[in-house]
Write a structure and sequence with these properties.
heterodimer, A: Serine Threonine Protein Phosphatase 5, Tetratricopeptide repeat, two-stranded antiparallel sheet, 50% helix, globular, B: mainly beta, Immunoglobulin-like, Maltoporin, Chain A, five-stranded mixed beta sheet, 12 helices, 49% strand, TonB-dep_OMP_SusC/RagA (chain B), transmembrane (chain B), membrane (chain B), TonB-dep_OMP_SusC/RagA_CS (chain B)
Chain lengths: 495, 1034
């Protein structure tokens, strides 16, 4: 009997069956907070993006729709306006889980840690950039409730109307610019855009205000002018040193690399579009941007562009050529390697927008021509940021401007077309600006079986998962904006 | 007084009869299988006159009357009366009667009970069922043999995992597979990787390591009443595997050698594509090499006419059907299993030592596995009161090149299946060019040259595993015992996977090195009693404590971009990364059981257990981290309690109620965490929120309750028996990783939500149509119906999405009011009359509109059945098994691509004169009829290709699963040798389909053993196996 009691007491002792369980369930490999600076660095890299969406949304769709590239390869859906839903939604599929989630989390942490306003301002500007890219491409998107599953417990965010998103983004830019002073922010060199330089962030905020303000030109010209006026008054980018960009490295992991450079390493199906090569005639950028596929010649005489919308059969019929080997391809040895910087907004774009503001409203000094010339010069000079081999002599630029001077009679087309050339590879911006201005005039293709009735798409489509994971909000967005197809226009893109 | 009087009368009568006559009767007594039964008592009924059978079952008896009756009885057999009827020779066979003997069965926690005492279903399968027809994953041998056990062996290669689900799925997104207990110790059965929509390989599971030759028996505990004592881990049922020990062998020293060889041949009867039109586009052949290269798998070319046409490599070849590419690419697989076992059984000590080697070559070239198992089971009686048992297994498993599945990159199955009829796969050899680049056959860099995929891609893993346990039992008093047991399942698994330099979609290549370390330690301490309280009342009871501790660690080294081409080592990678993963969880438990028995025909058992979960514990958490669950079950042996008609040999009614609960399968789900990831950027660390699942600080245990009733009835001396079970269970507060909107920033959220109900019926009908001395036929049919119904998901009743297919037009999803795991995908748009609505494109081709995602089928078949037969004639034995599943569907990725690329036979229609399509024009809502010219057929079918509805097919099948024909050498021959037994069998497995609904695919060819069943996407083609098996003992 003693034995039994002994054993029973062991049993009872063991009875406290959850000793130490609380500590076991704390993940020893994961801290419960990390420095906010490290989060900003990561968020900026994710804004530059991974290979995934750079390949699909940026290149496969937009670069070919914008006729920077052309291809005979079937899966490059944008060349022929066919619909691959997974490719179309790829920016949503990557952005919300990475940069969106990060910036929302950073803002909370900055609040909790009582960080200085300028750090919040920088994060808010980055946040506007991220959402502007999303809403310009898709229209109505979750904005006010997005990325807040842990913060506010919102698992099914509503889609906000683009009109409201724009109003809020512009307000955010205005407030953020006002909150920025001079000197280095608390992010310091963790800030890959500007190493914490508040003045540069302020100019970026105003330049973004300029961009978003001009976006409203078709839907609300009055507001457009007001925001553009405010942006210019606040001070926009002044040189290529102000370019908003992230520097990449060739490794050690995918996240460190320029996503477009990664695509160029894996996929050589793209050719320079005939539209783009034709534009680049007598342009010092031509031998830098393009090279002949077959022998890598970059003699301008050897560089011909491939018409969009062809398959190999049609190419054969049209030209008798069996392959696209004799066409120009991106000069991947020089431009946009895996360690090239990724540009988000450039000084060249800003000058072109100032030229437009001068043209439309007499703003920015009232004369578009100097802004146009400065824009062209900046667009050519900025290539050397990619690679020293891409440097263009000032003399060549002068010669170009002399040969192709500002043409006041076709000013908007000329400015917008240069803008289109300057946003080569930032196809998100090229696509938005083309929809806004209608320039350059791109001749659509009409490939058999295309999805748009032979018109260039006006947006890309939503992630299909939300049809079942967030059905009510998805349906509400469709009801407001129109069918979830490539031809539906976003709010600011009125006809 | 009365009784005594009778005895006296009888004695007097006997005295008279004794001397009356003397008639001699002789004969042989055999069992059901025709084996002689020695030591059978043979008594002339109504007399004390008797004898017993000799070693060969022969007897001779002198009876007093030829009109009398002989009574044959023996322990373990149903007694039999035979009228002499003037005969002088009477040969009979006796039927085994396990119940009457008080068959002992192993129940939860290894407690042995009389079979008739248990109030729930428990099915046993003997080890020989798994060992005769051997498969690389022994558990697959149970398929079709146990009612209510649904086994899916997928098309993932010989080293792949299998999915075992007992009585339906119990949790929406968690683990639904049973707990495996080997010799009392739970083992880990986690998948070491599975293919998903983006491809991958099946990394194998835990149960596949077990050597079938070591298995003594497998007992399946199905319902909650049977498994409640295992607590949370038993919620999905328990499979108890007992491995052979010294006690089960003959007395003294023995040796057993078994050897088997199985060949796996590609089942060529399944893929049935068109052979009339070759590679090309719009009805014409490729114009040149570049176009042939660009067209890849497109079989929209011209009619095959034998003319010379250029192919992807620039070579002109006759434009004609080249024959079956699959049978050229795949090889005949083989599996050799050799086991030697030494056993000894002495008075106080017994052991069995076995060594086994399994060598497999998969049908996928350059792929296979080797498994070496060492097993030592040893029992000892240390003193009168103390017995111990030590079991240890050491298993070394080496797998080479697990085939890639699902998505096309690196997946040889994809390419081989989809080559145009005029393209010969052999021309793609070698897969690698001299400059080390992939010998690409298509401009689509993601469809890999199959030889490159098989010979240049590589992965290899080596697993060292120890499963060991030791137990001790101390019988303190004759009714009181104390027992303890501690065991471990520990493995390390090192794997290397390589995407070589030169891969078309990854020109600089990359590789991964991974080490996984898994340790599970489980310990029990139990105090028990068995006591007869009165003549009629007896009781047995025990209380115990249990601790279960699982630790898992993963170290990863990997990277991309080889610097020196062809040199494959981590040091040669320009970009390297590393990571570590760690996971630890514990369950602490207290349990007890009380059984009351009345007069050996009425039994009532209560159990209770309380589990505490580390996965539900966190500093400051104020919701419960533990749950108590009770169970009760009762058994009434009606045949003992009542006088039943003599046709009823045995009848038992049983019933049980149980509750069980659990704490979730994963650690660290309660609080958000952050991480520093990668290796920084330009000197700056990279930080972010960790993970893509929203944590939940208030998580509580899920619970499941179940009611089960059953009947076990045997008739006509056991020639007919029926085991029937009906059950219903309900899981509430399931711990679910529910899919969230992508815009939330997370892909899923952990929550207690959902209610799931399973209802089902299981039956096992066994009968012996022929029973004679020379020939016996026994047959059994088992069947089950289980319906898993999703009663609730979250408050909004939103569906829970599981995996989707790579085509991204179909997924597996749980919907309220529907069965578990519906196939939900893009449908046709139809008008009210059901006519398909089309968009007419600019050249007049109607393109079917892509409709909403709707329910298209059931990923899990509710009906399953198996029919096994065993014939013995003399020393020969023939058995076969036919099994089937019904009521499920499968989405076929193969047929999707076959449509898009013009390989499906249905795409032949219209190639000559065009295809007439009638439908509704979506633009005008008016009916139209148009003819799609052959040139534009590919656009028409190309659109259908996006519509999942077209490719969801019935997965019903009836398969001739298993055949064995064996010969046991008769004792007369063996007596002259050193052998004690020897038998040889010819075996076959998966021989053919008796019935199959789906075109071009094996209905059992899912690529995942996870919860998303019903997606087929370029797995390893199915095979037929045949072979030879030999077993000798001496």
């Amino acid at each position: 009997m003693k034995k039994i009691l002994f054993i029973l007491s062991i049993v009872l002792l063991m009875g406290s069956c959850d000793d130490g369980f609380e500590d076991i369930n704390v993940d020893p490999t994961k801290p419960n907070q990390v420095p906010v600076t490290s989060k900003l660095t990561a968020a900026q890299l994710f804004t530059s993006g991974e290979r995934y969406e750079n390949w699909r949304a940026n290149l496969i769709y937009q670069s070919t729709m914008m006729q920077h590239y052309a291809t005979t390869t079937g899966y490059w859906s944008g060349d022929k306006y066919t619909w691959n839903k997974g490719y179309a939604s790829s920016l949503i599929d990557r952005y919300y889980e990475n940069p969106v989630k990060s910036v929302e989390d950073i803002l909370i942490q900055l609040d909790e840690e009582g960080s200085p306003e300028e750090m919040k301002a920088i994060t808010r500007i980055l946040r506007v950039f991220i959402y502007s890219r999303l809403t310009d491409l898709y229209g109505d998107i979750p904005y006010s409730e997005a990325g807040k599953a842990v913060i506010e417990g919102i698992l099914q965010p509503k889609y906000d109307a683009q009109s409201e998103i724009y109003a809020d983004m512009l307000k955010e830019l205005e407030e953020s610019a006002a909150a920025l002073g001079s000197g280095t922010s608390g992010f310091g060199s963790a800030d890959l855009f500007y190493a914490g330089d508040q003045a540069k962030w302020k100019r970026f905020a105003n330049s973004m205000m300029l961009r978003l303000g001009l976006r409203l030109i078709k839907v609300d010209p009055t507001a457009s002018q007001a925001w553009v006026t405010k942006a210019i008054a606040g001070g926009v980018m002044e040189s290529n040193a102000d370019i908003a960009k992230v520097e990449h490295t060739v490794g050690p992991e995918g996240v460190n690399q320029n996503g477009i450079g990664e695509v160029f390493q894996a996929d050589d199906n793209q050719r320079m579009s005939k539209t783009f090569i034709d534009f680049l005639q007598d342009d010092p950028r031509l031998p830098i941007l393009a090279t002949r596929f077959s022998d890598k010649s970059n003699d301008p005489a050897d560089l011909k562009g491939l018409p969009n919308g062809l398959d190999l059969d049609m190419l054969m019929t049209n030209t008798g050529e069996e392959t696209t080997d004799e066409y120009a391809e991106p000069n991947r040895e020089i431009m946009t390697r895996r360690d090239s910087p990724m540009f988000f907004q450039t000084y060249a774009e800003v000058e072109f927008m100032l030229a437009e503001a001068a043209l439309r409203w007499g703003l920015a000094g009232g004369d578009p021509e100097p802004h146009y010339n400065a824009g062209v010069r900046a667009a050519m000079k900025m290539l050397e940021l990619d690679s020293p081999d891409a440097a263009i002599d000032d003399a060549d630029i002068d010669a170009y401007l002399l040969a192709k001077p500002f043409d006041a009679a076709n000013a908007l087309e000329q400015i917008s077309t240069q803008y289109w050339a300057a946003t080569y590879l930032n196809e998100y911006e090229a696509f938005s600006n083309w929809r806004r201005t209608g320039f350059p005039v791109l001749v659509p293709v009409n490939y058999p079986g295309n999805e748009t009735g032979g018109t260039i798409p006006r947006r890309l489509t939503y992630s299909v998962g939300d049809q079942s994971n967030n059905p009510e909000n998805y349906a509400e967005a469709i009801a407001r904006q129109g069918p979830d197809v490539l031809t539906t226009r976003v709010w600011w893109d009125v006809e | 007084m009365n009784q005594k009087f009778k005895y006296v009368l009888m004695f007097v009568a006997l005295l008279f009869i004794q001397g009356a006559i003397a008639q001699t009767i002789s004969g042989t007594v055999t069992d059901n299988y025709g084996t002689p039964v020695p030591s059978v008592n043979v008594i002339e009924k109504g007399t004390t006159n008797g004898t017993s059978t000799d070693f060969d079952g022969n007897y001779t008896i002198d009876v007093s009357s030829t009109s009398g009756t002989l009574l044959f009885s023996s322990l373990g057999f149903v007694a039999k009366e035979v009228a002499i009827g003037g005969k002088t020779s009477i040969n009979i066979s006796l039927v085994e009667d396990v119940e009457q003997l008080g068959e002992v069965v192993v129940t939860a926690l290894g407690i042995k009970k009389e079979a008739k005492a248990i109030g729930y279903a428990a099915t046993e399968v003997g080890g020989e069922e798994l060992a005769t027809v051997k498969v690389t994953n022994a558990i697959n041998s149970l398929q079709g043999k146990v009612a209510g056990v649904n086994i899916t062996s997928n098309s993932t290669g010989a080293a792949g995992s299998s999915r075992v689900v007992i009585r339906g799925n119990n949790t929406l997104t968690g683990n639904n597979q049973p707990l495996y207990i080997i010799d009392g110790i739970p083992i880990g059965n986690d998948n070491n990787g599975a293919a998903g929509m983006w491809g991958g390989s099946d990394g194998g599971d835990g149960i596949s390591s077990i050597n079938p030759d070591d298995i003594e028996s497998v007992r399946v505990l199905k319902g909650g009443a049977a498994t409640a004592l295992y607590g949370s881990r038993g919620g999905n049922g328990v499979i108890l595997i007992t491995t052979k020990g010294g006690t089960s062998e003959q007395k003294g020293f023995g040796v057993e050698v078994s050897s088997s060889v199985t060949f796996d041949a590609l089942n060529t009867g399944i893929l049935d594509f068109q052979h009339e039109y070759g590679q090309g586009t719009r009805g014409r052949v490729p114009a040149n090499e570049a176009e042939a290269f660009d067209l890849g798998n497109s079989a929209w070319g011209a009619k095959l006419d034998g003319s010379p046409v250029v192919q992807w490599d620039g070579v002109e070849r006759p434009y004609s059907y080249v024959g079956d590419n699959s049978s050229r690419f795949y090889r005949t697989g083989s599996t050799f299993v050799n086991t030697v076992a030494l056993s000894s059984n002495a008075e106080n000590m017994n052991y069995r030592l076995s060594l086994s080697n399994m060598d497999n070559e998969d049908i996928m070239p350059n792929s296979g596995l080797n498994r070496k198992s060492f097993s030592l089971n040893s029992g000892a009686t240390l003193s009168e009161k103390i017995t111990t048992q030590v079991n240890a297994k050491y298993i070394v498993e080496k797998v080479q090149n697990r085939p890639r599945l699902s998505d096309s990159p690196g997946n040889a199955n994809y390419t081989v299946a989809l080559l145009a009829p005029n393209v010969d796969v052999r021309n793609m050899q070698p897969g690698m060019n001299e400059d080390l680049s992939e010998n690409a056959y298509s401009s689509n860099i993601y469809s890999t040259n199959p030889y490159f995929a098989a010979y240049n891609f590589s992965n290899e893993d080596v697993k060292h595993r120890i499963i060991a346990s030791t137990s001790i039992r101390y019988d303190m008093l004759d009714w009181l015992y104390l027992s303890g047991r501690v065991g471990t399942d520990h493995y390390t698994r090192k794997s290397t996977s390589l995407e070589p330099y030169g891969t078309a979609f990854k020109p600089l290549g990359g590789m991964q090195e991974q080490e996984r370390i898994y340790t599970q330690v489980d310990a029990d301490l139990m105090l028990g009693l068995d006591k007869d309280i009165t003549d009629k009342f007896s009781t047995s009871a025990f209380v115990g404590v249990n601790s279960n501790h699982i630790k898992y660690e993963e170290l990863n080294l990997g990277g991309n971009d080889f610097i020196v081409p062809g040199f494959e080592d981590i040091s040669n990678l320009a970009n390297q990364s590393r990571s570590r993963l760690f996971n630890e969880r514990k369950i602490g438990s207290v349990y007890g059981s009380l059984e009351l028995a009345y007069d050996r025909w009425a039994y009532l058992t209560f159990t209770g257990r309380n589990d505490w979960f580390s996965t539900l514990s966190y500093p400051g958490k104020d919701t419960s981290n533990n749950v108590f669950y009770p169970s009760a079950n009762a058994s009434l042996v009606l045949s003992d309690a009542l006088e039943l008609p003599s046709a009823i040999t045995f009848m038992k009614l049983r019933g049980g109620y149980s509750e069980v609960g659990g704490g979730g399968d994963e650690a660290y789900k309660l609080a958000p965490t952050y991480e520093l990831f990668g290796q920084g950027h330009l000197g700056q660390p990279l930080g972010r929120v960790s993970g893509s699942t929203v944590p939940n600080a208030a998580l509580v245990p899920w619970t499941k309750s179940e009611v089960e009733i059953g009947l076990d009835a045997r008739f006509f001396d056991n020639r007919l028996s029926l085991d029937l079970a009906v059950y219903k269970n309900e899981t509430t507060d399931d711990i679910v990783n529910a899919t969230t909107s992508i815009y939330s920033g997370y892909s899923s959220a952990t929550a207690n939500l959902g209610k799931l109900e399973n209802k089902g019926v299981e039956f096992l009908l066994s009968f012996t149509p022929v029973r004679s001395e020379k020939f016996n036929w026994t047959s059994s049919i088992n069947g089950s119906f289980n319906e898993s119904l999703i009663v609730e998901t979250n408050a909004e009743g939103q569906p829970v999405s599981l995996d989707q297919a790579r085509s991204q037009n179909v997924q597996i999803q749980h919907e309220v009011g529907q069965r578990f795991g519906k196939i939900v995908g893009v449908s046709y748009v139809r008008d009210d009359a059901g006519t398909i609505v089309y968009d007419i494109n600019s050249d007049g081709t109607p393109l079917a509109q892509e409709g909403d995602r709707v329910i298209l089928g059931d990923g899990v078949a509710p009906w399953a059945m198996g029919w096994s037969n065993n014939f013995t004639f003399g020393d020969f034995n023939l058995s076969f098994l036919i099994d089937g599943k019904f009521g499920g569907q499968v989405f076929s990725g193969t047929n999707t691509f076959a449509y898009g690329s013009g390989l499906h036979k249905e795409t032949l229609e219209g190639r000559v004169n065009g295809l007439t399509i009638s439908g509704i024009d979506g633009a005008t809502n008016q009916p139209f009829t148009t003819t799609v010219t052959p040139e534009f057929l590919q656009d028409y079918y190309g659109r259908i290709n996006n519509i999942a509805e077209q490719f969801v097919e019935d997965a019903d099948y009836i398969k001739f699963r298993e055949l064995s024909f064996g010969y046991s050498f008769p004792k007369e021959i063996l007596e002259r040798t050193f052998l004690t037994s020897a038998n040889v069998s010819i075996i076959g497995r998966n021989l053919f389909y008796i019935q199959r609904s789906a075109d071009n695919i094996d209905p059992e060819s899912a690529y995942s053993a996870g919860n998303s069943q019903g997606l087929e996407y370029f797995g390893v083609p199915s095979t037929r196996s045949y072979g030879l098996s030999l077993n000798v003992k001496f």
